[in-house]
Specification:
By secondary structure, the chain is of the alpha/beta class. It has helices spanning about 20-25, 65-70, 90-100, 115-125, 140-145, 160-170, 185-195, 205-215; strands at about 1-5, 30-40, 45, 100-105, 130-135, 155, 175-180, 195-205, 220. It is globular and about 50 Å long.
């Protein structure tokens, strides 16, 4: 089972910031999870929300900004210090150095072309074996499978597991990434039986961590260490 720092060590540092990733990768975490979007001028950056309001000093939709325009804002999530919005390429350099893994969630609202650019960047850096993709968009995952057939693709769901199971079967996706509270024992048995990998987000206590470890799922996502 891989433990992944959700948006980096986001309980301690600004989410999706370079420092949040660096600190997670220096720790016992097996890797990190992040959110990929694209700026108006085609730069791949890491941001969870469609808008920059919550995590930066700016306002408006990310897709309406160029990368240079975004540099005027502080993406510190209201914490201390200045943090520029993080480029995907900078995170991938850290992944390569650390020899750990990363789960790249392609945001459903990301601009057209985001998937293609992301897969091409990963390939150009020879990181296919360290990158695991996920998305709540069926079309995006289908595109990843077409461009990189051997890459892991996890379908993200926050409810309606039964409907998601049919989608995963029909589209030949590799895994399901679900809110941890949705994943009952019978569901875990089903996924083991049909060969679907499981990712559980976002864990907060040791009891749940041990439960999923005992049931041998593939990923758990956490904002901080669980002691």
């Amino acid at each position: 089972m891989y433990t992944l720092a959700h948006r980096g060590l986001s309980r301690r540092f600004p989410e999706n910031s370079l420092v949040a990733f660096k600190e997670a990768l220096k720790s016992e975490f097996d890797g990190v999870e992040t959110d990929v979007q694209m700026t108006k001028d085609g730069q791949l950056v890491l941001l969870h929300d469609a808008k920059i309001n919550r995590t930066s000093t700016g306002k408006g939709k990310l897709a309406n900004y160029t990368y240079e325009e975004l540099l005027q804002y502080n993406f510190n999530s209201g914490l201390q210090g200045y943090h520029a919005i993080c480029l995907l390429e900078d995170l991938l350099k850290l992944i390569k150095e650390s020899k750990k893994i990363v789960n790249l969630e392609i945001k459903k609202e990301a601009l057209s072309g985001t998937v293609e650019k992301t897969v091409a960047l990963v390939a150009s850096m020879h990181l296919e074996s360290q990158v695991y993709y996920s998305s709540a968009s069926i079309a995006q995952l289908d595109t990843i499978k077409k461009l990189s057939p051997t890459s892991y693709c996890g379908y993200i769901v926050s409810h309606h597991l039964k409907k998601a199971n049919a989608i995963i079967h029909d589209h030949h996706f590799d895994g399901i990434h679900a809110r941890y509270s949705l994943l009952k024992f019978k569901d875990l048995l089903y996924y083991q039986k049909v060969g679907v990998k499981v990712g559980a987000w976002t864990l907060k206590n040791k009891k749940d961590l041990l439960y999923f470890k005992e049931n041998n799922i593939m990923f758990v996502f956490m904002n901080d260490f669980i002691l």
